[in-house]
Amino acid sequence: MLRKPKKGWTPQHWASWKPFGIGEQYPNNYWEVFRAMWLSRDRLPYAWEILNKGVCDGCALGTTGMKDWTVDGIHVCNVRLRLLRMNTMPAFDEQILADVSQLRQHKSSELRELGRLPYPMMRRRGEKGFSLVSWDAALDVISDRIRTTTPNRLSFYVTSRGTVNETYYATQKAVRAIGTNNIDNAARICHSPSTAGLKAALGAGATTCSYKDWIGTDLLVFIGSNVANNQPVTVKYLHYAKKAGTKIVVINTYREPGMERYWVPSIVESAVFGTKFAEDFFLVNLGGDMAFLNGTIKHMIANGWVDESFVNNYTSGFTELKAALDNQPWSELARISGASRDEMYAFAKMVGEAKKAVFVWSMGITQHECGEDNVKSIINLALTKGFVGREGCGLMPIRGHSGVQGGAEMGCYATVFPGGKPINAENAAQLSQHWGFPVPETKGLIAPEMIDAAYRGQLDVLFSVGGNFLEVLPEPDYVEGALKQIPLRVHMDIVLSSQMLVEPADTVVLLPATTRYEIPGGVTETNTERRVIFSPEIPGPRIGEARPEWEVFLELARRVKPDLADKLRFADTASIREEIAQVVPLYAGIQHLQQAGDQFQYSGSHLCFGWNFPTADGKAHFTTLTPPQKELPEGHFWVATRRGKQFNSMVQERKDAITGALREAVLMNPHDAASLGLKDGDKVILRNHLGEFTGRVYIAPIQSGNLQVHWPEGNVLLDKSKRSLEGVPDYNAVVSLEKQA
To answer: Which of 654, 636, 405, 648 is nearest to 530 (CA)?
Structure first.
């Protein structure tokens, strides 16, 4: 049994004795409520219905309305409130697109604020802007171009903000009917290393536990993850975890203020005095996590803190791992990690003394060339104590987008079919038999490879649902050059984005999409803890001729392959769910979700429960890992890209309310700054062989030798060729720093 949170107030956990944190730097969440109300004042009843009945389209916590399955009370965060206006805003006047020369000067945030895209529009090469077209005309242009090329020269990309299981499933089915596996989604560039690592080690590629396991476990560890910024509802869980006696630890390059303390607005005690979260921070170098965790395991072995019974009976590969660690000198592990042997011991002692523990990680672990191995190093540590498959234990790659968990599971992925099945001849044959048409049996282009193909002139069509390659991928000039070479680009979205305005090689088509709350019949999403949740259609205003993406893709496929028309129809979203239940056995039960509040957690509260691992040998697998031997040239810094007040690449404010840093901030260690004669606010230039970033010094508690800049502004410093095995770009770089007069 997990410990329960103590009743009554606990002053030892207060962040400050000053009421309401007067003078402290933290988000004014009450202001966010009033701001959201003001922006949606023209449609307040509709906005309230979305908040009260719809499943959150922000991060992947998956609140239904304003409640969840973890703790009681009202849950609404500033991320969701910032996204609300995108669901309630009216359409823009299509005449604003008649000449895009001025719009190209706008920031993406300004483009979003113009309003919803109401009608299909088209722009040909040499034209100043876009003209209205009918849906028929738009789909004719797209289908004609697809028919005149070959499947290998097509690509389709689906984002994850607000995208639902039904859209993912129907879209990938339509694309495969057209004849290609060149379809990918946003999961590719965030947690694909997590899926690969978990699948290889445990046989299960998703979060193994539930959010409830955070509250009352002995040890809760966050590695390269900042939930206070990206999943703000979780700070409520952290408050109750502290009251239940859970020890919270963070391993990161930067001592994130929001992970240290927060004022939780919906809990009176925390709203007044705040809550201290992390008791210990272990600061590591960029890319030093694996070395730090290897050192931790060395200490655990040396001190007899390993659960030998579990290791001997339920795992394989430990002997090989131990031998490899014996050959990794402490001096090297300390140099690479940036942490001392004593710090590794201190963390190992915490893990060794814990009877239960949960490990949470995010982009700080996965978005590296060695992302898969970073994940496996966390799994190695958890397996030393059997921290999986039981209450209060687990491995959690936490998701930052509400739709991302279901994307690959529905098969909207270039490297797997629905259900996560590998793309091969056998699985293609099974799908072909089920769907009644031939399914391609070779892997498709992943998202970054689509841009590479376009740059080489090997792509004729790019169909992008949401997303913005121009602001998401490294080397934006390269990406823009690639987009300019694609004969037909199709962008389906609810608002304008900067990539829509890139000059056409021949034709650009814009298609208006519905939000998840506008889709007739309702839809489902899958959250981080594998909970599949029904989100009902919310009656209210509708925008022009906006259509659900799933309908559009199936109609397009019918036009391209008229002989398959009868096999490419769904009466409604309920019939899509019926087929999902048949094709993806894990999702059996999705067909019964019909109204608000309906949900189920596939595979139960814990994967691998009772230490039953769905691997070939029935055991969990340790992985022998050698930390990458990265050398930092003299006078250079590691630089990581970070999020501020934003949702994915959608920047919402120039200033981050948690850190106080502006978008041009270069977060820097105070001793590093002093050694270079720099102080807060000094203008500096970061340079490498790819580009330069001009910013201002922001003194921060960050590991010496490391810098952080905001993303996507820092993309100019990133190398497009550096990717993990699963294709995740490495969102880090090495730079020189120069003070600018």
So the answer is: 405
Q: How far apart are CA 278 and CA 228, in angstroms?
A: 12
Of the candidates 721, 728, 646, the residue with the CA atom closest to the CA atom of residue 689:
721
Structure tokens at 577: 């769910």
Fill in the DSSP letter of residue 389.
S
Structure-block tokens of residue 225: 């993850």
Backbone angles phi, psi at 430, to 5 degrees: -65, -45
Which string of DSSP letters, residue by residue, matches 99-128?
--TTGGGS-HHHHHHT-B--S-EEEETT-S
- Rounded to whole angstroms, how far apart are CA atoms 124 and 364? 41
The residues near 87 (Cβ < 8 Å, ≥ 6 apart) are 47, 50, 57, 515, 517
Give the model's pLDDT for residue 631: 86
Question: Which of 410, 426, 406 minimizes the C-alpha distance to 418?
Answer: 410
pLDDT tens across 622-670, in order? 999 999 988 899 999 999 999 999 988 888 999 999 999 999 999 999 9
Bridge partners, 612 (sequence order): none
Low-confidence ranges of the chain (pLDDT < 70): none
Residue range 556-611, pLDDT digits in tens: 999 999 999 999 999 999 999 999 999 999 999 999 999 999 999 999 999 999 99
List % helix, strand, coil for the chain (3-state, nearest 5).
Answer: 40, 20, 45
For residues 447 and 325, give the distance between their C-alpha atoms in angstroms, rounded to a whole number: 36
What is the distance between the alpha carbons of residues 461 and 92, in angstroms, rounded to a whole number? 27
Residue 504: count of CB within 10 angstroms of its CB: 21
Cβ density class 50-67: b for 16+ within 10 Å, e for less: bbebbbbbbbbbbbbbbe
Rounded CA separation 490/304 (Å) = 59
pLDDT (0 to 100) of residue 79: 92
Q: In this structure, are residues 629 and 324 in contact, taking their beta carbons and an 8 Å threshold?
A: no
Q: What are 461's strand-pairing partners?
A: 154, 488
| DSSP per-residue codes, 18-62 | SGGGTT-----HHHHHHHHHHHTGGGHHHHHHHHHHSBPSSSTT-
Phi, psi of 7 (to 5 degrees): -85, 155
Please provide the size of the chain in residues: 741
Per DSSP bridges, beta strands 646-647 and 650-651 are: antiparallel
Single-letter code of the amino acid located at 646: Q
Question: H/E/C letters for each residue in 309-372?
Answer: HHHHHHEECHHHHHHHHHCCCHHHHHHHHCCCHHHHHHHHHHHHHCCCEEEEECHHHHCCCCHH
Angle subtended at Cα 66 by Cα 210 and Cα 36, rounded to the nearest 5 degrees = 125
**How many Å from the N-terminal Cα to the C-terminal Cα in the chain?**
61
